[in-house]
Amino acid sequence: MATAKDPLINTTLFNSSNKQYRELIVSQYTATNKQRINSYRILSYELNAAGNRTEQTEVEVRPATREESIAAYTQQLKTFHDEGFKEVDSLYLFDKIRCNSFGYVAAISKLYHYNLIHIYKIVNDELIKLTVLSQGDAQLMDIKFFHHSNKLITSDCLGKICIWNLDTLQLVKTLKHGQNHSLFISKDDSMLVTNSGNWNTAFWNLVTYEKIFSDKDGCMEADFLPDNQTQYVWSGMPYGKYKTVRTRNINSGEDVDVKDFFAYSLTFAENGKYFMTWGKEHRSVYEYKTWKLLIQNFEAHLFASGINDDCIYFTKVENATQLFRYNLLSASTELFYINKKSIYRFCQVDDSKLLIGLNGIANIELVILAK
Predict the structure, then answer these.
(1) H or E element: which one contains 66?
(2) Position 29 pLDDT exceeds 60
(3) For residue 274, which of 192, 223, 269, 354 is within the disulfide window of CB 3.0 to 4.6 Å?
(4) pLDDT tens, residue by residue, 214-227
(5) In 10 A of CB 80, how many CB atoms?
(6) Same domain, yes or no: 256 and 127
(7) Distance CA 120, CA 159 (A)
């Protein structure tokens, strides 16, 4: 059983006196094997005297190639921007905002200029835009800074992974891995893990840029343990071989620990003390060392939540102009920051500075917090 979605491409090839031919790529979700399938179709329509379509005939139907599917998604994004959604600010927001300890800031958008990397630097409590980088025409999926240098890693939906030197604003290295959707760097900057859209996870040596190995057991997301770079924690797919959160040894590939729950995503606190997971409709927070459950079904705005030190920062769905802080030690919530516009993304620079992505075209602000 398959449920058809709106076509990704719906183009009129040509009209004759009584016929019209259209090209479509249709995305369908198959309930039986839990997969999304894109099909390429050419349809012909009989036209009446008024030029309206009547009878439909399928001239060609086949599975869409990977290149056709990618081109279709790219064209759909351009259509969103150029034609139908110019008045919808929420489509033009910064989707990811990252910063490092050297004052550099990087941000990418989801639809508006979705292939560009916006680079800023914080100088004397001011956010100064330095440049815009691009690694191609494909949609960017994730960006991450190295922990101990001014290097930045970016990935796109075609699986292209670029490593940049922000001191020189030059491309250092290009890697390739599937349809990459997330990046994680080890605390010592020696290894990179890339999570692909085909549920394949790859580990890379960031000194030699060689692939160490791939984990093909069906992984949603993986990250290094904060205190043990030879182990990583990963979440299985909801319909895959494993539906659990597992800790594995990088060298042996064997499971060190297994937790009997599923998570779409994994996040460690900056201090390594806490571990956040989120499923379809909730988030939970655990104490990392003991895996003690501290918060279960923590309700927060999915697009603007984070964990930093002993606090969780989040916005609420009903009022995204307010940023709240939940203290894990005291189990108390306080109003942390208020803005006139909705807060879509945020990134805490330090105890006195906060970066927020607001509702608006490429709108990012540096907020100096009260002492």
Answers:
(1) helix 66-79
(2) no
(3) 269
(4) 877 666 777 888 87
(5) 18
(6) yes
(7) 25
Structure tokens at 212: 């160490």
Give me the domain span that covers residue 58: 2-84
81 confidence band (pLDDT: 50, 70, 90): very low
Residue 339 or residue 279, greater confidence? 339
Question: In a 10 Å sphere around its CB, with 0-12 CB exposed, 13-18 middle and 19+ buried, how is residue 93 labelled?
Answer: buried
Question: Which pairs count as long-range contacts for 332-339, CB under 8 Å and 24+ apart, including other chains?
Answer: 337/367, 337/369, 339/365, 339/367
Q: Give the residue-averaged pLDDT of 289-304.
A: 73
Query: Final residue of a domain: which of 29, 58, 84?
Result: 84
Do 298 and 277 share a domain, yes or no?
yes
Task: Please indicate, yes or no, if residue 196 is contained in any of the structural domains.
Answer: no
DSSP secondary structure, 305-361, as one string? EEEETTEEEEEETTEEEEEEEEETTTTEEEEEEE-SSPEEEEEEEETTEEEEEESST
Count of domains forming the chain:
2
- CA torsion 95→99→103→107, rounded to 10°? -20
Which range is least confidently modeled, 25-39, 45-59, 244-258?
Answer: 25-39
Question: What does the alpha-carbon distance between residue 104 and residue 177 come to, in Å, rounded to a whole number?
Answer: 26
- Distance of alpha carbon 202 from alpha carbon 329, whole angstroms: 36
- How far apart, in whole angstroms, are the C-alpha atoms of residue 153 and residue 137? 17
From the number of C-beta atoms within 10 Å of its C-beta (0-12, 13-18, 19+), residue 240 rates as middle
Mean pLDDT estimate for the chain: 76
Q: Give which of 176, 177, 275, 283 is closest to 234, Cα–Cα.
A: 275
| Mean pLDDT confidence for 34-52 | 71
Q: What is the 3-state secondary structure (H, E, C) of 67-86?
A: HHHHHHHHHHHHHHHHHHCC
Closest to 73 measured CA to CA, from 134, 28, 9 = 9
Q: Kindly report the backbone phi and psi dihedral angles of residue 242, in degrees, each rounded to the nearest multiple of 5, phi listed first.
A: -120, 135
Cα gap 111→94, rounded to integer Å: 9
Instruction: Write the single-letter amino acid at 325.
Output: R
The Cα 161–Cα 122 span in angstroms is: 26
Which 8-state DSSP code applies to residue 262? -
What is the three-class DSSP state of 252? coil
pLDDT at 90: 41
